[in-house]
Amino acid sequence: MAARPKAAVKGEIPKDPEKVDRILTSALHEFAQAGFRNAKTDVIASEAQVSKGLLFHYFGNKANLYYEVSKWSLARMNRAADFNVWQSAPNLKVMIERAMRYKIKMQLDYQDDFAFSLALYGGTNKFPEALAAKLQGLLDGEMKMATTDLAGPVLDRMTLREGVSLETVRGLFLMMANLISDKAQAYMTDHPDVKVDDLEWLVQESLGYIDVLEHGFLAE
Q1: pTM for this one?
Q2: Most distant CA pair in the chain, distance
């Protein structure tokens, strides 16, 4: 016997997709400009042309709104990005250089998203504990995706020397990616107004790591 559809909760207001999109867009801009603690929900509601009551009905509280904006912004950036820029690179060094140049170009079209993500990657210690844990899980997922979906095809094409497994190389690459991410977070915490092109020094440092990863550090 087929199960009966669940009855709507009395008093529940269905979410209007257009209003949700306006709230997320407005919140992204406000969080990108003011940061989590200084962002005003009054401003977000006003810019989204909704009542503050509706905003909280849809998202519960400011922390949950920030988390939903984080998921929404990262997802739309992933949809907009041309993964072929990473995946078609002949080696890891070219991939890193291409990715950095491409991100600088994307920054012009997604200014709020980049400002928001720079603050997000700048460290979760400035958020309430419960929110910080959820955001860290989100960032860990993005890092895993970058290692498997973006760098994975490049690693798969590389010819490894005898005795070296692909799993070992993937593990080393992930550790290197985590190190680079930690350095970026530390720098962005100390420089809140950083732009993507301000991280050129980190690109060059990353290329040095890649060179050692590919060729070792002992003289031949």
Answers
A1: 0.76
A2: 74
Would you say residue 37 lies in a domain?
yes
Task: Confirm whether 114 is domain-assigned.
Answer: yes
Residue 89 within any structural domain of the chain: yes
- Domain CATH for 48: 1.10.357.10
Angle between helix 52-59 and helix 17-38 axes, rounded to 10 deg: 90
139 and 47 housed in the same domain: no
Taking alpha carbons only, the member of 98, 105, 195, 198 closest to residue 154 is 98
Total domain count for the chain? 2
Q: Does residue 145 register a pLDDT over 80? A: yes
Tell me the residue range of the domain where 133 lies: 81-220
Q: How many CA atoms lie within 13 A of 125 on its CB side?
A: 7
Reported as a single tens digit per residue, the pLDDT across 32-80 is 999 999 999 999 999 999 999 999 999 999 999 999 999 999 999 999 9
- Tell me if 58 sits within 8 A of 20, measured CB to CB: yes
CB distance 121 to 139 below 8 Å: yes
Provide the pLDDT for residue 7.
47
